[in-house]
C-alpha cells in the first residue's frame, strides 16, 4: 500500500516473514535488546533515574545510553529491531506485530461513521483542549474560566483540500487561547501547569526517530493481501485487509516516512501528559480524566493513524515524563498553586466546599464518565491491548518519583505509602513492552486512584476532617489482599468497598471506617478501639473475632440478617455504643425486634443505644450469640 504522496511501498510480507538480522542503524552496539537481555551489560550500566535524567530526551540523543525516554521504552526493542531505513526493520516477536496489525485493520474496517468523525476531531483538535471533556460537570466552567477555545468541533463531510490545524476562532472572546487556556485567566495557573507538563523534553520525536517503526497505514496486512481493484479518494489502491485511514485525515498525513514513525504515538503522549496535569490540579475527577485519556488515545487506532503498540508506547513515556516534570523541585510552587487555584475557582462557581466539590463533580447523570464500572471496563483492555503475558511474575520496584502522580488524589498518604499503592495496583510483569527500563508501563493509575491493592505489611492511615476534601473522606474500592492489616486514625472517614481478603486485621482508633461491602473488613480480627465502624445498609462479615470499645453504626431494615456477622467471638467492652439508623426504603416496623450483631459467642453489651431517627427508642436484647434491638415509636 502506498505510504504517502511519494508512493513509497512497505511490504508487510517482508516485514513479518523476515527473521534475519539487518543493520541496527541508529541503535548500534549495544542495542536496546543487548542492554536489557545481557545481565553483564545491565549490571555494568548505571543510569540515573528517569525523573533525574528526562532532559536527555532531545533529537540528538537516539540511543538507550543517551536518552532516558528511549530507555523507558526499551521493552519495544524485544519486539522490533530498527533497520538502517524506515522500511527495513525486523520483527523480533512477529506474533505480536501480526496481532497488532490485525487488530488495527479489524478496528478500522468496523468503525462507524460517527467514530470516524470523532477520530478526525481528536486528531486535529489541540490535545490539551480535548482533555477538558474529562472534567464532566466542571468542563464548561473550566473552558470559561481558562478562556480555552478550539476551532475544531466537527469533521467535514469530505477530504479537506489542505492541512487543517487548530486555531483561535475569529469570534472567540478577547484573550482566548488554544489548549488548556490563557495564563491571563481565572485558571491561568492550571493552564500553565498543563503546558509545563507538556513542555521541554517531552516530545515523542526523538523516540520516533530512534525506533523507526512505521505507521500501520504504511504496511500491508500480510502475504494474503488482496487488491480489490478499487482506489481511495486520493487514488491509492484499496486492499481488503488494509488499515483504513479516516478519509478526512488522508491529506493530513505526513509525506515523509523517514520522519513520521509510528512508535511512540505523539498524540497519545500529549493526551496523557495533559491528563495527568489536569488530574493533579482537579483530583476530584482523577479517574474520569484518566479514562478520557484512554478513550481519546484509542481514537488514534480507530483513525488508522497509529497501532496498539504505538499507543501503549505513548502512554508509557507520558507517565514517566509527567512524573518527572511534577517531581522537579522547580515546579513545586506552580503545581501547588494550580491545585489551590482550581479548588477555589470551582468551589466558588458551584457553591460547594472542599468537602462537597467531589459530589458536585459527579452529579451529572449525563456525564460521559458517570459510570465507574464502565470506565474500568474501558481502561482495562487498553492497558495491554494485543500483548500476552509470558515468563514469571516479578514484583515491581516503583520508579523514583512516580508517587507524585498521586500527590493530590491521595494527599493523606505519605510518599512511601503512595509508592505502595502504585506497587500493589500495578500490572503484573510479563507484558513485553510494558517491562522496559524502570517499568513505567506497569503502573495502573486508574486502579491506584482506588487505594491499595494489597496490605503486604500493616498500613496506618490518618484522615483529618479539618483539612477537607480527600483528607476528610475517601473511598478505597480495590479488592485488597495481603498478610498485613489496617489501622484507621484521624477524624475523617475511610470507606472500603472491595471484596477484601487481607488477613492482618482491622483496627479503628478514631474517625469513621465505613464498610461498603459484605467483605470489606478482610479476613482477620476487627477492633473498634475508638471512633466508629459503620456498616451502612448491608450485612457486613467479620471473619475473625470482634472487639468494640467505640461506636458501631448500623442501618436497619425489615430483614432478618444481622448488620454485623462475626465468625468468632464478639466482645462489647464498657463504654461501647450502638447507633441505629433506618433504611429509608424499607424501615423496620414499630414493635419489631431486629438483629444487629450475630456471633459465634458474645460477651458484654452496649453501654448505650441511640436511635438516629426522631421519635423512636430501642432496647437491646442480648443472648449468648448476639444482640438485637426492640424498636418502638415514642
Structural commentary:
It is a single chain. With 634 residues, the chain is of the alpha/beta class. It has 2 domains: 12-381, no CATH class; 409-437 and 451-633. 29% of the residues lie in helices and 16% in strands. It has 19 helices and 21 strands. It has helices at 12-17, 32-37, 39-44, 50-53, 68-72, 94-110, 113-124, 127-130, 139-146, 188-197, 205-211, 266-281, 286-302, 308-327, 332-350, 357-360, 372-379, 415-425, 445-448; strands spanning 80-81, 90-91, 227-231, 237-239, 459-462, 473-476, 486-489, 493-496, 506-508, 512-515, 526-528, 532-536, 540-542, 546-548, 551-556, 564-572, 577-582, 593-604, 608-611, 616-623, 626-633. The strands form 4 sheets. Strands 5, 7, 9, 11, 13, 14, 16, 18, 20 and 21 form a 10-stranded mixed beta sheet that branches. Strand 1 (80-81) and strand 2 (90-91) form a beta hairpin. Helix 10 (188-197) runs antiparallel to helix 12 (266-281) and helix 13 packs across helix 17 (372-379). The radius of gyration is 28 Å and the shape is elongated. The termini are far apart. The model is unreliable at 1-31, 35-44 and 221-227 (pLDDT under 50).
Task: Give a short synopsis of this structure.
With 634 residues, the chain is of the alpha/beta class.
Write the layout of secondary structure elements.
Blueprint: H1 12-17, H2 32-37, H3 39-44, H4 50-53, H5 68-72, E1 80-81, E2 90-91, H6 94-110, H7 113-124, H8 127-130, H9 139-146, H10 188-197, H11 205-211, E3 227-231, E4 237-239, H12 266-281, H13 286-302, H14 308-327, H15 332-350, H16 357-360, H17 372-379, H18 415-425, H19 445-448, E5 459-462, E6 473-476, E7 486-489, E8 493-496, E9 506-508, E10 512-515, E11 526-528, E12 532-536, E13 540-542, E14 546-548, E15 551-556, E16 564-572, E17 577-582, E18 593-604, E19 608-611, E20 616-623, E21 626-633
Parallel strand pairs: 5-7, 6-8, 7-9, 8-10, 9-11, 10-12, 11-14, 12-15, 13-16, 14-16, 15-17, 16-18, 17-19
Antiparallel strand pairs: 1-2, 3-4, 18-21, 20-21
Helix pairs in contact: 7-13, 10-12, 10-15, 12-13, 12-14, 13-17
